[in-house]
Input
Amino acid sequence: MFNDSQISKWIEKHGTATSFTFIVYGDLKENEVELLIKGLVIHLEYRNIMHNMAVFFDPISEEQAVAWNTFQGTSLSFVFAGDMTEIENEVKMIIKDGLKYMRYKNEYLGLYRSDSHV
Output
């Protein structure tokens, strides 16, 4: 799913990685993503369920939007080491609330598990 060496190492070590993906209908800036990350990390640390996490955010151009049958904006994914499906509702709630606070329309696209098949 993600071509990142650290994610590959997580999959090798934990057998899987879990990603939660959102589409944001706007030009999400780096400092706004950092704010979302801080909110999520604080919540998960408070609940003692924080694991290794990587965040990917990429703009969706007009050409990509046409190809993917979606709209222009920003793709935002939170990737965790291991099977983290049990925290889906928490991640979804925190990120959607943060985006709403920043006045961005958004949509949760769902979770995806990348499994090791060795």
Q: What stands out?
A: The first strand starts at residue 16 and ends at 24. The chain has a mean pLDDT of 89.
